[in-house]
Every structure is written in structure tokens, then in C-alpha cells.
Design goal:
Order of helices and strands: HHHHHEHEEEHHHHEEHH
Shape: elongated
Strand content: 5-15%
Largest sheet: 4 strands, antiparallel
Number of helices: 12
Strand order of the largest sheet: 1-4-5-6
Helix content: 55-70%
Radius of gyration: 39 Å
């Protein structure tokens, strides 16, 4: 018995020593997170007490038509629905890992028959065995059984708990992924909505320009009859009128495509988009407070998602390293077993039970375990790079958009001044043309410049509004 115990001790010791040779994970250091600047630029010191990313989207967007579109998209958008199913999959993964921590118990019944050779030790023993006086063992020998079976892997190295923690981190990352999809979806709806309003206003401008060209054409025909203008002027105005009408159909097609793009985001078939275009140019963009860069780490769901994926990857490395350690499993059975069904009810003779403990660990040919560990270690490093890239891109997004907000405001002011000046020059040029003091080229050039300026002013307003939406999303807003 002492020799037997020595063998067991030696085997257990060899397993432990073999486990001590498990490779070490790569030590990673997150320098990008540690060196995040205190401000987005030297001029802006930020407002640590205010960040627009914390404003709920229902308070940020005040247009009831836009709010209605966002609500529809949150209910029907297919990409959002797909993301919600990813959350359910991750939640099931947590339950699966949690289930491995507890014993598995199953019930079963079985029946079989076996005939052993007469001239074997088993057959000779059965032939000379009497179950009851005068009753020999039947030949062939049946076997009927039923009972409970339990298996339990003892988590002595906390490997299973580490896997569960990794699954929880991954689940939480999918939740943040859903929040990021929400933020992107709301941004897309708002951007497309403002683009649609801009197209509506551009259509109005081109229709007004068409009427202006029609009047200019009529005047040129009258002046030609009075010998104050030539046929060339008439043809030039006719060509300009045809061009403006063609532009109108181009814009109409763009409106249709933009409406359907919004409908696709709302998860529905083509239908008119309810909107009010009249007050578009009078919309005042929301004031955006950027806060400080460190708030991005708490507000932006894509950063939190990357951080949780990094945490999950680190735990996966830890769990993969523990695969080199020995595992302890306990198996137990309890039930009834007999070679004849009528004997199953004879207790306690028909009772059968077993209890087995097994300690096993890898000794040689551990290439598969090593490969899994190396894969997990590489994914850990990859997740760190993804996390750092997300932080860096988030910072750069906000820094670029802060500059864009300031520049687009100045651009819009100057375009407004340009438009007013050109509108005045159109009236002057038309008056001079009627009095034969200016030729048709001056009128055409003034009208074209005014048209371009008005169209660019509308685009500037759309960019102004969209930039505010973009920076709101970049600061972590749009999902609360």
C-alpha cells in the first residue's frame, strides 16, 4: 500500500512540475491611454464640467419630424436588430461558461446481452456461479440498468472562472457595440435628413432661377424685335433655360435617392419623408461643449467596447495558460443493475454505485495547447492595438471637427455676404439690360454667379448642421 501511495505521489508531482513549464503571456503596456492629452488643442482648454456627448438625443434634436424618423429607425433598423442578436449570443456564452462550474447530472437506462466463451475465466466463473440454490447463471447473460450519473471538473486553478469572466467581458462589449450602432444610426439619420432639406431648398432655388431665365428670355426676344439685341442673345438665354431645367431633374433624382436612403435606415419600403423645408436656412446649430479628452474614455461606446474586448482577450490568455495545468474530475454513478429485470427491485442487492476521482495533465506533445496559448496571446496584443487605434481616432475626430465647426461658421457668414451682394447685382444687371446699357453676357454671368452662391450657401448650412451632429456623435452622444 505504501508503494502504491508513492507512485500516486510521484505521478501527481510530475504533473505539477510539468505545469510549471507553462509559457508566460506577453506583458503589454497601454501607452496611448496613459498619454492622452489634457486638451484637444492648445487654444481650447475644454470644459471639464460639460460635455455634449452626455446630452440625450431627444434633447439634442428638436425637429419633431427628425425625432419621429429616429424613433422609427430604432424600432426597425436591420443592422440594429442584428446587433441585438449578437448580444443574445454573447449572453448565452456567459451561461455556457457558468454552467461548467457546476456538476452535470444525467439520468439513463440501458439494456444489453452478452455471451462469454465457456473456456474463458469469465465464462467458467459464470457457469459455476449460483444466484440461488439450484439456479445457475443464465446463458447468454443479460444486463439491465438505470440510474444517475454525475461529472464535475473541480476548478482548482480557477480556469473555468477565468473563462466565465472573459465571456462576461465579451458580453458587455457587445452591449457597448449596440450603443455604438445606435450612435451611428442616429448620426446617419440626422445627416441624411439635413441633406434632404438642403436638396429641397436647392430645388426651390433652381426653380426660381428657371423663372428668372424665362423672363430674361422674353426680354431678349422683345429686344431682338426692337433691334436692341441679336439672335445670339436669344439662343444664349434659351440654352441657359434648358440647362437650369435639366439641373432641376437632377436634383429631383437626388431627393428620391436620399428619401429612400432614409427609408432604408428606418427599415421600411419607399415612402415620402415628412419634413418642413421652409425654416431650413434659419436653423441655428446646437452649441457643442467638448469637455476634456479623458471624458471620451467614459462616453464613447466604441472605446468602451474596445476596452472590454481587451479585457476579455487578457482573460483568454490567462485561461489558455491554465490549460497546461492538471485537471481534477470527479465522476459518480448511483443506480440499479441486474441481469434480469425482476431482480432490479431486489434491494439492496441490485444497487450499484461508483465514485472516481481523476487528476490528469499534459506531459508530452503539447503542441495543440501551445498553439491555442500563442493564438490567445497574439489576440491580446491585437486587441491592445485596436483599443489604442480607437482612442487615437476618437481624439483626432473631435479635434478635426472642432476646427471644422469654427471654419464652417466663418465660411457660412462669408457665403451669406456673397449671396446678398450678387442678388443686388442681378437686379442692377437686369435693369441695365432692359435699358440696353448692359449686354446679355453680363446678365448671364451675374445670374450664374448668384445661383452658384445660393446653392453653396445651402450646402454650407447643411454642412454646418451635419458637422454639429458629427461632433455630438464623436463626443459619445446619440445612444443615451
Amino acid at each position: 500500500m505504501k508503494i502504491y501511495n508513492k507512485y500516486i505521489t510521484a505521478i501527481a508531482l510530475s504533473l505539477v512540475l510539468a505545469s510549471c513549464k507553462a509559457p508566460m503571456a506577453t506583458v503589454i503596456k497601454d501607452e496611448v491611454k496613459e498619454n492622452v492629452p489634457q486638451n484637444f488643442n492648445q487654444e481650447d482648454q475644454g470644459d471639464a464640467n460639460n460635455n455634449s456627448g452626455t446630452t440625450p438625443w431627444r434633447q439634442f434634436f428638436t425637429d419633431p419630424n427628425l425625432v419621429s424618423l429616429i424613433e422609427t429607425a430604432l424600432k426597425n433598423n436591420q443592422e440594429l436588430m442584428i446587433t441585438l442578436q449578437e448580444i443574445e449570443i454573447a449572453k448565452s456564452g456567459v451561461l455556457a461558461k457558468k454552467g461548467r462550474l457546476t456538476p452535470t447530472v444525467s439520468a439513463g437506462i440501458g439494456a444489453g446481452v452478452k455471451k462469454a466463451g465457456r473456456y474463458t475465466s469469465e465464462g467458467a466463473g459464470d457457469a459455476t456461479t449460483e444466484i440461488e440454490p439450484g439456479k445457475e447463471m443464465p446463458d447468454p447473460l443479460g444486463n439491465f440498468e438505470g440510474g444517475l450519473m454525475a461529472n464535475w471538473e473541480i476548478d482548482i486553478w480557477k480556469k473555468l472562472r477565468t473563462e466565465k469572466e472573459s465571456a462576461i467581458a465579451h458580453y458587455l462589449s457587445t452591449v457597448e457595440g449596440k450603443n455604438f450602432v445606435l450612435s451611428n444610426l442616429i448620426e446617419e439619420i440626422a445627416d441624411n435628413y439635413y441633406e434632404l432639406l438642403a436638396l429641397d431648398n436647392q430645388l426651390d432655388i433652381i426653380q426660381q432661377y428657371t423663372k428668372l431665365q424665362q423672363k430674361a428670355l422674353e426680354i431678349s426676344k422683345i429686344q431682338k424685335e426692337a433691334a436692341a439685341a441679336t439672335e445670339l442673345a436669344v439662343k444664349k438665354f434659351e440654352a441657359e433655360l434648358a440647362k437650369s431645367k435639366a439641373t432641376e431633374y437632377t436634383i429631383r433624382q437626388q431627393i428620391t435617392e436620399k428619401e429612400n436612403e432614409i427609408n432604408a435606415l428606418c427599415g421600411r419600403y419607399p415612402q415620402p419623408i415628412v419634413r418642413s423645408k421652409d425654416d431650413f436656412m434659419a436653423i441655428i446649430p446646437q452649441t457643442v461643449y467638448t469637455g476634456i479628452p479623458s471624458q471620451l474614455l467614459a462616453n464613447r461606446p466604441d472605446i468602451k467596447q474596445a476596452e472590454l474586448e481587451l479585457k476579455s482577450a487578457k482573460l483568454d490568455v490567462e485561461a489558455a495558460r491554465k490549460e497546461f495545468y492538471p485537471t481534477l474530475e470527479i465522476s459518480a454513478t448511483l443506480g440499479l443493475e441486474a441481469f434480469k429485470p425482476s431482480y432490479l427491485v431486489k434491494l439492496p442487492e441490485s444497487m450499484a454505485a461508483s465514485l472516481v476521482g481523476e487528476l490528469a495533465g499534459p506531459l508530452i506533445n503539447k503542441s495543440a495547447i501551445k498553439a491555442n496559448f500563442q493564438t490567445a496571446d497574439a489576440r491580446q496584443i491585437q486587441s491592445l492595438y485596436e483599443y489604442d487605434k480607437t482612442i487615437l481616432n476618437a481624439y483626432l475626430d473631435v479635434a478635426n471637427l472642432m476646427s471644422k465647426v469654427k471654419n464652417i461658421d466663418q465660411y457660412y457668414k462669408l457665403k451669406s455676404e456673397e449671396t446678398k451682394a450678387l442678388e443686388q447685382s442681378i437686379d442692377i444687371a437686369n435693369q441695365l439690360f432692359r435699358n440696353s446699357r448692359a449686354d446679355y453676357l453680363e446678365v448671364l454671368l451675374n445670374q450664374r454667379d448668384a445661383l452658384d452662391a445660393k446653392m453653396e450657401l445651402v450646402e454650407a448650412k447643411q454642412k454646418q448642421l451635419s458637422t454639429v451632429v458629427d461632433i455630438y456623435k464623436s463626443l459619445g452622444g446619440g445612444w443615451k
